[in-house]
Design a protein that fits this description.
By secondary structure, the chain is mostly helical. The chain has helices at residues 3-10, 14-22, 41-55, 60-72, 77-119, and strands at 30-31, 37-38. The protein is elongated, with a radius of gyration of 22 Å. Residues 88-115 form a coiled coil.
Length: 123
């Protein structure tokens, strides 16, 4: 599939896809005789994983590091696992922090609701 179709299927802009290819996130993208990129289902699966890492807040530099380790093969399994464990730990902490923020907001909303109910009692 060409960049346009790949873009449609991934939800990323063609510019982003070309950028990801340029910085080494995409693994040896095939080229047609005319020089245009040609993507496979395997590329779709990999990019879905990259997007998931990005959506969970992994910095692009760490995603690049993961991609480099992946390209290096089986000898990097432990390093890849550690990178993902570290990311999962950081994500868990951010989620816990966000849960605390949410609880604080809910408490403030409840306070305002109580004040509104106290000011405007229902008969």
């Amino acid at each position: 599939m060409n960049v346009s179709e790949f873009s449609n299927r991934t939800g990323l802009s063609p510019h982003t896809i070309r950028y990801y290819d340029k910085i080494g996130l995409l693994d040896d993208v095939q080229r047609r005789a005319n020089g245009h990129r040609s993507f496979t289902e395997k590329d779709l699966s990999w990019l879905a994983f990259v997007k998931r890492l990005k959506d969970t807040g992994m910095p692009l530099a760490n995603i690049q590091k993961y991609a480099q380790l992946r390209k290096a093969g089986q000898s990097t399994l432990q390093a890849r696992q550690k990178l993902l464990i570290d990311h999962a730990d950081a994500l868990g902490q951010r989620i816990a922090d966000q849960q605390t923020h949410l609880k604080n907001l809910e408490n403030k909303i409840a306070f305002y609701q109580a004040e509104i109910n106290h000011t405007n009692p229902i008969d």
